[in-house]
Design a protein that fits this description.
single chain, about 200 residues, alpha+beta, seven-stranded mixed sheet, five-stranded antiparallel sheet, 14 strands, about 45% strand
Length: about 200
Amino acid sequence: MEEMEKKPSKLKIASMVFGLVFLVALVIGFTFALFKFSDIGNEENIIDTGTLVMKIDDDASDVISIENAYPVSDEDGMKTDPYKFTVENNGTLTAKYRLRLVKDPTLYPNGIENADSSHIKYGFQKGDGDMVIGLIDETEGILITDEVLTSQHSETYSIRLWIDSEEDIDGSLFETKTLEFHGRVQLEAIHNGRTDYETGK
């Protein structure tokens, strides 16, 4: 009689242990998803994992391109029409993020191997702040990093592209390649306090 009473008790304990292990695994998996996000801007991208909601919303075309352009000075380049977009945090958590300008191989009509972007400059601006100028290839596309955005706040950015007139461009370059760039904005967000955008840790 005592043996009969022990068996259900062991089954109950085993079920409770299994349920606890499953719950812990679920919480760990959810926590990791909660604090890391990476997506490439289209007309509208939204990430919603728990209470962290990051959004990139484009005002213009989602593709950032430059082709068939002539070299110009930085002064003239900064006057060109900008590509504008907004990053919003509609969640309840404070988030840290970085923005990158990444090449999209599918947008190159003659193949990405036939294009050269080493002489293409960008002008990147946060709101009405000062414009940061750089060469796309030298920065590996990173426009801004470790920006912090609190809950229910947003930031607006703009990007301009032009061919650098100060570079000594070898004429033979045009015989084999074209100076062009086609890409998109990539938003990578993690929970504030984390440091690694690749792992979310």
